[in-house]
TrEMBL record:
UniProt keywords, alphabetically: Endoplasmic reticulum, Fatty acid biosynthesis, Fatty acid metabolism, Lipid biosynthesis, Lipid metabolism, Lyase, Membrane, Transmembrane, Transmembrane helix
Organism: Geodia barretti (Barrett's horny sponge)
Basic and acidic residues composition bias: residue spans: 1-19
Record field: transmembrane: 28-49, 81-102, 114-138
Assigned GO CC terms: endoplasmic reticulum membrane
Keyword Lyase among record annotations: yes
GO biological process terms on file: fatty acid elongation; sphingolipid biosynthetic process; very long-chain fatty acid biosynthetic process
Family per similarity comment: Belongs to the very long-chain fatty acids dehydratase HACD family.
Membrane keyword on record: yes
Protein name: Very-long-chain (3R)-3-hydroxyacyl-CoA dehydratase
InterPro entries per record: Tyr_Pase-like_PTPLA
Catalyzed reactions: a very-long-chain (3R)-3-hydroxyacyl-CoA = a very-long-chain (2E)-enoyl-CoA + H2O
Amino acid sequence: MAEKAETSGQREKENESKKSGPPPVAKAYLLLYNGLLTAGWFVVLYRTVLYSIDHAPSWRSDGIPTSVPGLYDDLRLPLRVFQTAACLEVVHVAVGIVRSALFTTFIQVFSRIFMLWGIVEGVAGTAYSPGLLLVAIAWSATEVIRYSFYFFALIDAIPYPIKWLRLSSLLLCLHLLRIAEPFSIKDTSLFFTQEQFLHAIHSVICLLSHWCRD
């Protein structure tokens, strides 16, 4: 009986520790990390919206741009910094301060890193594709929501609008990327033959990552 009581007591302590979240130092670090990335992605979103407002009068009559010169010049630094900073999410899961599926996290981060450094940065002309505009909106909007959700979850005070947007942003991400990524990829002869493959893979990754992550 004493052994059973001791075992049940240990289980209760383990459950309490899981509910309490990461240790104080790790929690403070994650608050800083999620806060900085929320702010960083908001900068990307703000600059993208500002670019759209400034350049919309010069677009075609149907409102669709044929090129987005200067957009990536505005976004290059924050995109490089805050998209690459997502690599730390793999480390967070690996060391155990964030509970999530390691493989799913790795695939999600790798897909974004490949899109940024492999295509936008690596292939000449892609940065001027009109698809970049929608990609920037999709990435920044969903990441502002996601990182702010994680921030407020750490202090057990998630505002209802953030919670609602978190659940709804999946559809926004999928629909915008479904339209945008083929534009970004097809402008390069290197990736043109792989357009549908990359688009399908990234869409599946986006879907799985939003379903499987905390």
